[in-house]
Design a protein that fits this description.
about 130 residues; alpha+beta; 30s Ribosomal Protein S19, Chain A; 2 domains; three-stranded mixed β-sheet; 3 helices; about 35% helix; elongated
Length: about 130
């Protein structure tokens, strides 16, 4: 089995053209170069479209999601992906409408009735 070079990783995941190469924000690279991951704290960035390069492995980035910064620890598996992929910008509430709410309410009511019945049974034994 041959070892894959960092450029081959970019080629398999990359969506930009090969002649352009992956987009890595120069400001993010400037904050990373010459530093050790253990010594630096969270590197805050608003560049969600920046690709994760091998130089960024081990660093923790605070990626802005539109409201606040979410901490992302870069690992080797993330190389070639974008920083924004690991910082969701939308909050999933749930599927369903009126029917789903009615089912949940019925489930709560049955749990409350079961708790009351158990409490009444316990008090009658005393």
């Amino acid at each position: 089995m041959s070892a894959r070079s960092p450029t081959s990783i970019f080629i398999t995941i990359m969506t930009r053209s090969l002649k352009k190469g992956p987009y890595v924000d120069p400001r993010v690279l400037k904050k990373v170069e010459g530093k050790k991951p253990q010594e630096t704290g969270v590197i805050r960035t608003w560049s969600r479209s920046c690709s994760i390069s091998p130089e960024m492995v081990g660093f923790t980035f605070g990626v802005h999601n539109g409201k606040n910064h979410i901490e992302v620890l870069c690992t080797e598996d993330m190389v070639g992906h974008k920083l924004g992929e690991f910082s969701p910008s939308t909050k999933f509430m749930r599927h369903g409408g009126k029917i789903q709410k009615e089912l949940e309410q019925a489930r709560k009511d049955s749990e409350i009735q079961a708790a009351k019945a158990a409490k009444a049974a316990a008090s009658s034994k005393k």
